[in-house]
Amino acid sequence: MLSNVLAHSTSVSLVLGSGGARGLAHIGVIQWLTENGYDIRAIAGSSMGALVGGIYATGKLEVYAEWVLALERMQVLRLLDPTFGRDGLLKGERIIGVLRELIGDCAIEDLPVSFTAVATDLESGEEVWLRDGRLFDAIRASIATPLVFTPLKRGSRTLLDGALVNPLPIAPTLNDDTDLTIAVNLSGPAELRPIAAPSVAMVNGNAYRQRIRAFIEGLHLARTADAPARGLFDIALVSMQTMQDTIARLKLAAYSPDVTVEIPRNACGFYEFWRAEELIALGRERAAQAFAKAGR
User: Which member of 46, 47, 114, 187 is catalytic?
Assistant: First the structure.
């Protein structure tokens, strides 16, 4: 029984799903796992899951956590580098450059943890598993959300966000020699109040959110006076999220991980990265609940 496995096993293959800012919950899940004696030996991640998982594999997750917890006090607009091309709003080079400086780059094959970042081939639509080369190049490819970030060229391929074809990449872990496969699904069922109401500081942070939104929508996506309440940017993100939620459910049905940590899909907005404290706490909470349920 699973309860017996959980009682003596520590080695883990960890699957980290996509979901924008909800991916900060991955930090809390990883913290809970390591604090409770689980040895993460392999990680497969898509989009934000690739970013958090790749940083964990370097041993610098707490450095990243401290940085993102302070994000609302930083000049985030300076991290956004608009492009005047037609294949995306942002180059993504500035934020990746900051992370390279903060974490340090390395070759994926030199990491102490097996790591796979999932991307999508723009031309063929194929799922691409990135298991070698520079870590942050792979992360940059995996987070290349259509409309938001420009695609990444890798050899002859043009790569986009892995969430387009596999938002919960369990398949790369199937041959791992580990005791448990744990999947963190950021497309879990919606809840009435998945996290606590925002604090006074978070309410004040709404102005920060509005500046980011105005900046992004100002890049050719601003709605007209006669447009509906949702702007084009919102509609595009919601549409992609709906697609990813459906694919994630199919992946969970096809490959059954030993433990699935469910993060509600309405836990926060796609780009609400200033809610790191709440989301990390949510990840810890839902990891504890998932293991308690699995151990019964």
Answer: 47
Q: What is the CB-side half-sphere exposure of residue 262 using CA atoms within 13 A?
A: 16
Along the 296 residues of the chain, how does pLDDT read in single tens digits? 455 555 455 899 999 999 999 999 999 999 999 999 999 999 999 999 999 999 999 999 999 999 999 876 455 556 665 566 666 566 667 788 889 999 999 999 999 999 999 999 999 999 999 999 999 999 999 999 887 788 888 989 999 999 999 999 999 999 999 999 999 999 999 998 887 655 444 444 555 555 555 655 555 444 334 444 566 667 777 888 888 889 999 999 999 999 999 999 999 988 788 889 999 999 999 999 999 998 84
- DSSP letters, 116-130, are EEEEEETTT--EEEE
In the annotation, is 156 catalytic?
A: no
Catalytic-labelled residue, pool 161, 176, 187, 245: 161
Contact between 43 and 53 (Cβ < 8 Å): yes
| Beta-carbon contacts of residue 295 (< 8 Å; ≥ 6 apart) | 2, 3, 6
Run of H or E residues at 281: helix 276-294
132 is catalytic: no
DSSP state of 258: S
* Secondary structure, 3-state, 213-225: HHHHHHCCCCCCC
